[in-house]
DNA sequence: TCGCACCGTTCGGGTTCCGTGAGGACGGGC
DNA sequence: GCCCGTCCTCACGGAACCCGAACGGTGCGA
């Protein structure tokens, strides 16, 4: 996948130099020579990285950052001629990810771009509905339904059963230690009362698993805790 | 939640200054004065941000970065006295996220730390996935999966097996002495019980290695200890 | 060639840990 | 007062796990 970079600088010579160097490295380049253009291009093109000069006409670099941060989390690298610490702080706190002062080494700039693009966060939104086999769990509505022949029936869970299930599902695929569950649900004074969990896990399995004696979704890790596996083992 | 920062610098005065300033800002501080200490502290404390000096004794800053990047994606900010572009490129490409040259403005450093922590909210557990051949090890989820024909199967590890594997993986590429492992897992009274390790290494190899009789990832250094090699020898 | 040190491997007992069922305590609704 | 759902205690059988002991293989020096 090719990385698209927006270069915004009011100095055409600088823009040209950056374009040549960066496109030679395989980046896809979009340019702008003032703040207004930069924001418009951003909306139209959705770049993966921003290379912003401060002190552009029309819209100041800081204002551009604010505008961008309203709707994108793509990395922003600010290039500026000024070296005072106050501006750096201001820019970084406005949402920029890095700040380089002119004159800069092109190799360093490239390395910093690589460092920024390396972190491409593929953050997955918290899924509210999880389906395992015949059973669907809706975390938002606090409801569980089971598909039966010719329809679906609601599964009734007690409040405590819900708490256990919810924690496990929210940590789907992850091991949840017994202590975590106990402290979360019964409080820190019951860290050692593992009997509670055995009970409720048995209940949940009875209600959710196709074959409770051979759990496919609510797995136990001996000596550690429990794990909810959406795919079924 | 409080952000934990590891400060690693061989200059005690610098460490003290940073500790005072950062802890005053509400950060939780862990310190180290050489590379070996830094990696050990990282394993024990799991900091959210790393503040590394280059040119430390025992283990160089670059080596520390390599060791850390084997298992953590937490942001690394490198502080160095040298200004040459080559070193910056080298460090950034090694996996560091930012590079600041001494002398630096404390305000700027703080702003850069804020910029880094803004990106990786630590309520999302940091991903730490290591892949070796057909097997992927997920330290955060405490899970091991093995690619098989037509899918992937979970590999079940016992708690003790996990402890051994975790220490080795977190020290990926580095030699871990037998004593280190024994003290860490079984306590200092079992420093000489090397039999334990032979047992669990055999178990791990059986479960992880393509050919357990010819280990490619879990190597033994005769007379010394063991070494986990991500690339496979 | 022998002996030794070191490492890998197997086996089985002892212990801890886990699932299950029965049943009591508590409290709210009627 | 009675019913009923929920939560918890307890005891038992079985499984998982840890660890001690012994055997085999390999490399090295005497």
Brief synopsis:
2 copies of one chain form a homodimer. The first copy, chain A, is built from 8 helices and 12 strands.
Give a description of the structure.
The structure is a homodimer of 233-residue chains. The first copy, chain A, has 233 residues and is an alpha/beta fold. Chain A folds into two domains: 4-118, Response regulator (Rossmann fold, 3-Layer(aba) Sandwich); 129-228, Winged helix-like DNA-binding domain superfamily/Winged helix DNA-binding domain (Arc Repressor Mutant, subunit A, Orthogonal Bundle), CATH 1.10.10. Helices cover 39% and strands 23% of the residues of chain A. Chain A has helices at residues 12-24, 35-45, 61-69, 85-94, 106-118, 159-170, 178-186, 194-208, and strands spanning 4-8, 28-32, 49-53, 76-80, 98-101, 129-132, 135-138, 143-148, 151-155, 175-177, 218-221, 225-228. A five-stranded parallel sheet of chain A has the order 2-1-3-4-5, with helices on both faces. Chain A has a four-stranded antiparallel sheet with strand order 6-7-8-9, with no helix packed on it. In chain A, a hairpin with a 2-residue loop joins strand 6 and strand 7. In chain A, helix 2 packs parallel to helix 3 and helix 6 crosses helix 8 (194-208). Chains A and B meet through helix 4 and helix 5 of A and helix 4 and helix 5 of B.
């Amino acid at each position: 996948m090719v990385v698209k970079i927006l270069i915004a600088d009011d100095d055409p010579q600088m823009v040209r130099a950056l374009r040549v160097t960066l496109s030679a490295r395989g980046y896809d380049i979009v340019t702008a020579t003032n703040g207004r253009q930069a924001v418009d291009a951003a909306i139209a093109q959705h770049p993966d990285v921003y290379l912003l000069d401060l002190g552009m006409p029309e819209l100041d670099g800081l204002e551009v950052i604010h505008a961008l941060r309203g709707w994108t989390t793509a990395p922003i690298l600010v290039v500026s001629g000024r070296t005072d610490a106050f501006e750096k702080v201001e820019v970084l706190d406005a949402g920029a990810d890095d700040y380089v002062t002119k004159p800069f080494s092109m190799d360093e700039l490239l390395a910093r771009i690589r460092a920024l693009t390396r972190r491409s966060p593929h953050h997955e939104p918290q899924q509210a509905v999880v389906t395992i086999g015949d059973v669907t769990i809706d975390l938002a509505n606090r409801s569980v339904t089971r598909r039966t022949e010719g329809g679906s029936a609601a599964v009734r869970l007690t409040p405590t059963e819900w708490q256990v299930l919810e924690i496990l599902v929210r940590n789907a695929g992850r091991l949840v230690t017994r202590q975590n569950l106990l402290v979360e649900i019964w409080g820190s004074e019951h860290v050692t009362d593992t009997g509670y969990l055995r009970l409720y896990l048995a209940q949940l399995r009875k209600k959710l698993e196709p074959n409770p004696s051979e759990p496919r979704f609510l797995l136990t890790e001996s000596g550690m805790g429990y794990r909810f596996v959406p795919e079924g083992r």
